[in-house]
Each structure stands twice: as C-alpha cells, then as structure tokens.
C-alpha cells in the first residue's frame, strides 16, 4: 500500500527523516529520564554524594559491565538528543546559508567526536594503571 | 424575571480587555514551558560536552581525574549542581508533558494543568534533592 497522493501533489519518496527525529526525541527522552535519574541518584544522592566521586569510585562502577553499558547508552542517547535539539534551535534562529551549515556541521562534529571518545574511554578503561599510588585506585586493585 | 427582556439592546458594561498581542499562547503557560524547555535544554547540552571531557580524564591518570573532579566538590560548583539538577528535572518532567500533549487528546486540552503539575513535581523533587546535596557539599 502506498500513501494517498492528492492530485497534483508530487509523490513523496524515501524516509521522512524529520518524522523519525520527532519520534527519536520522545523515545530517547523517556529512556534518558530513567538513565539520568539513576545516574544522579547513584552519584549524588547515595552515601556522601558528590564528595565520594574520585578515580576509585569510577573504577568501581566500570568494573561492572552493567554500569559500562548504562553510561555508554546514556552517552549515545543524550548526545544525539542534545545535538538534534540544538539543530532545532539553529533552524529557528538562523537563515539557510553558510552560517547555518557551519553551525550544524559543528554540532555533528562535536557529537560524533564525543560519542567516539566516550565509548572508547568506557570500554578501554584501565581501573588499576601500573605505577599509580594504591590509595588512588579502586580497592580491588592488587597491591604492588 | 429576566433582567434583559427580549428586544432590549444593551451594550456590555465593559468592553473585553484587549492586551496588545494577547493570544491564547503568548505569555501563557504554553509559552513559558516552551521557553524553559529550550533554556534548560541548551544548558544541559553544554554541560554534557564538558562532562564527557572531564570524565575522559580517567583515561589519562587517576591524578588528572581527581584534580578536575575535585573542583566539582567546591561550594560554588555544589550550588551550580543544584541549578544543573533543577534544569534536568524540569526538562525531564516537561518532556513527559510534551509527549502526553502530543499523544493524548485529554492532555492536549489540559496542557495548562499539566504545566502546573510539572512545576509541583519539580518542587517536590528539588525539595528531596537540594538539602541532601548541600549537606554533602558543605559538611564533609
């Protein structure tokens, strides 16, 4: 089945990317609410909150694949959600032209670079780097 | 007895007040929820860029990460974190309101009520978060 075409209307072809953007903002938004509220509760509300965060704290979390995937999912969903939201503002407040292209290019580049960087950091993280003082490291690191 | 018998022409006692540019939208709940959604969204986006970079320092050295994360534990930044969490909580709850308004006819009709529910939930959430966070920031 094809969608109804009114007489004289050019046939629309391909995917409606703006529609999928609209759907993405809502679907990712709901997931991000859960992921970010969980992130804030674990990092800011439990125990001594922000005062407890250090290398050992992060190392302890990322020793568990559960928190690695939690944080990587948050990274991808949030950066794409944020960059697409900023694209909406660029569309609203600039006219089509070079400036608009540069701004959208910068948003795309920032999101792409940080997604790659963040994903590599989470999955190549070394919780017990050689030569570091033991009191800075997670408690499970072997004493040297 | 009817005060205005049929056939009597009356003019309204007061002409309806017409504010310049007054519409159902402008200056009302719908506009302010939109404005706040944009402002909080932009603020959260720029924090996110910084936050990914500071977290990436765990890949440099424990000392580098601890030095930067230590600045998040100062009183000034502690207050900034209250503002950040306030922005996130508003954006989250108002985002749910937007989804409901888009998908559910009842919510479209009652979007103003939903805006005040968002504000109420925001106040409750911040009352839960702020004291606990500030005690952590200022007392350890």
Describe it.
The complex is a heterodimer of chains A (144) and B (140). Helices cover 65% and strands 0% of the residues of chain A. Chain A has four helices and no strands. In chain A, α1 packs across α3 and α3 runs antiparallel to α4. Chain A has 144 residues and is mainly α. The longest helix of chain A is centred in the first third of the chain and has 29 residues. Chain A has one domain: Fumarate reductase/succinate dehydrogenase, transmembrane subunit (3 helical TM bundles of succinate and fumarate reductases, Up-down Bundle), CATH 1.20.1300.10. By secondary structure, chain B is mainly α. Chain B has a single domain, classed as 3 helical TM bundles of succinate and fumarate reductases, CATH 1.20.1300. In chain B, α3 packs antiparallel against α5.
Throw out a few tags for this protein.
heterodimer, A: mainly alpha, 3 helical TM bundles of succinate and fumarate reductases, 4 helices, elongated, B: 140 residues, mainly alpha, 5 helices
Radius of gyration of chain A: 22 Å
The helix/strand class of chain A is mainly alpha
* CATH architecture tag of chain B: Up-down Bundle
Radius of gyration of chain B: 24 Å
Interface with most residues: A-B, 42 and 37 residues
Count, helices of chain A: 4
What structural category characterises the helix and strand content of chain B? mainly alpha
* CATH fold-level topology of chain B: 3 helical TM bundles of succinate and fumarate reductases
- The helix/strand order of chain B is HHHHH
CATH T-level fold name of chain A? 3 helical TM bundles of succinate and fumarate reductases
> Which CATH C-level class of chain B is it?
Mainly Alpha
Task: Report the mean per-residue pLDDT of chain B as an integer.
Answer: 88
Number of strands of chain B: 0
Cofactor (chain B): heme
InterPro entries (chain B): SdhC_prok, SQR/QFR_C/D, Succ_DH_cytb556, SuccDH_FuR_B_TM-su
Protein name (chain B): Succinate dehydrogenase, cytochrome b556 subunit
Subcellular location (chain B): Membrane
């Amino acid at each position: 089945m094809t969608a109804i075409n009114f007489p004289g209307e050019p046939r629309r072809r391909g995917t409606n990317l703006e529609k999928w953007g609209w759907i993405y903002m809502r679907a990712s938004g709901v997931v991000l609410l859960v992921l970010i509220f969980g992130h804030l509760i674990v990092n800011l509300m439990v125990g001594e909150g922000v005062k407890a965060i250090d290398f050992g704290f992060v190392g302890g979390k990322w020793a568990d694949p559960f928190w690695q995937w939690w944080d990587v999912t948050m990274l991808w969903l949030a950066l794409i959600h944020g960059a697409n939201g900023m694209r909406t503002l660029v569309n609203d407040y600039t006219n089509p032209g070079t400036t608009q292209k540069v701004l959208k290019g910068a948003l795309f580049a920032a999101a792409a670079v940080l997604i790659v960087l963040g994903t590599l950091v989470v999955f190549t993280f070394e919780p017990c780097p050689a030569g570091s003082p033991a009191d800075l490291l997670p408690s499970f690191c072997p004493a040297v | 007895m009817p005060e205005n018998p049929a056939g009597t022409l009356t003019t309204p006692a007061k002409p309806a007040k017409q504010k310049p540019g007054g519409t159902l939208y402008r200056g009302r709940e719908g506009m302010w929820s939109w404005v706040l959604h944009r402002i909080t969204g932009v603020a959260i986006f720029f924090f996110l860029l910084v936050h990914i970079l500071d977290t990436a320092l765990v890949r440099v050295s424990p000392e580098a990460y601890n030095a930067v994360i230590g600045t998040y534990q100062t009183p000034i930044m502690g207050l900034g974190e209250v503002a950040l969490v306030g922005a996130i909580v508003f954006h989250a709850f108002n985002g749910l309101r937007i989804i409901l308004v888009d998908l559910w006819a009842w919510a479209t009709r009652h979007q103003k009520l939903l805006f005040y529910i968002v504000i109420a939930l925001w106040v409750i959430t911040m009352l839960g978060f702020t004291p606990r966070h500030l005690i952590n920031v200022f007392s350890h």
